[in-house]
Specification:
This protein has 343 residues and is α+β, with helices and mostly antiparallel strands. The protein has helices spanning 2-18, 22-33, 38-41, 51-90, 109-122, 137-140, 172-181, 223-238, 291-296, 313-321, 334-338, and strands at 127-128, 134-136, 165-167, 188-197, 208-218, 244-251, 254-263, 280-289, 305-312. Helix 1 (2-18) runs parallel beside helix 4, helix 2 packs antiparallel against helix 4 and helix 5 packs across helix 10.
Amino acid sequence: MKERILQIVSEAKQSIASADSLDKLNDIRNLYLSKKSELMSFMSHMKELSKEEKAAFGQLINTSKNDINAALESKKEELAKKALEEKLEKEKIDITLTPRNYLRGSKHLFTTIVDEISDIFTSMGYQIVEGPEKETDHFNFELLNVPKDHPARDMQDTFFIDDNNLLRSQTSPVQARVMLSKHGVGPIKIISPGKVYRRDDDATHSHQFGQIEGLVIDKNVSLGDLLGTLELFAKKMFGEKRKIRMRSSYFPFTEPSVEVDISCFECGGKGCSLCKGTGWIEILGAGMVHPHVLEMCGFDNKVYQGFAFGIGIERTAMLKFGVDDIRRFYTNDLRFLKQFDKE
């Protein structure tokens, strides 16, 4: 019996060593250590042995069980460790990788144009000054030579908060604030970018749009200085080939006044729906600062002269990048913005 017991232990260890799963290991445990196993069946022969033989035989059985159990536990730990390693390898995540669904932001076209126009004018010595979007009637109209009941107010019909406060219809109030702060002493050379509000809504107009206005106040400033400035801006912004047209106009805060048009990018000047059949799109309004405006803002119009201009930010972007509808700037369509992502 002793030889058979040792043979069983050897067979059990060989089976344990070749087991490749916890299920197979459990089957081996049942085969060799259950109450009905061959090894346990030898316990029934104990009654046939003498007292001395029983002790030795019992010790052999216990030692054999312990040897098999030790082999089982060792193999169990080995298989569990292997299973964990395989699971970790299968579920491994490389946290250094950028998620595939990550969307990188890009600069809005509106901001791109503001930065580009600002760079052009700051290179000519202009300072950037900003002001509030909620303005008073006094700064938005009256200091700009547009008193109450003046017909020019219809052209700049904006959104009133109450009888005196409104959303500014132009960035010109910033110019008035700067002139007043100078207490009649020049020079002034500024641009004022920002959002303005009017009751418009079509392919080339919006109830909210961007504007950059410029103001120069100094001694011996002429209309020629204004035209030279605008021509330099147009060439830097749109290139030498873009056609420019300047024509007389009327603004209550400038005298004389001019408007600057650029040939339509859609039809090349032949006439289309975008340019309303004229072949030209207006982007600039300008003129010499009205003497009355100078007086109201504290400057002696016999000593100082000045010019002012207003540039439509979206209009400029439409010309430069071929945008067909001004309302696209405010639709939050990432596909539209991605077209102009230079990075």
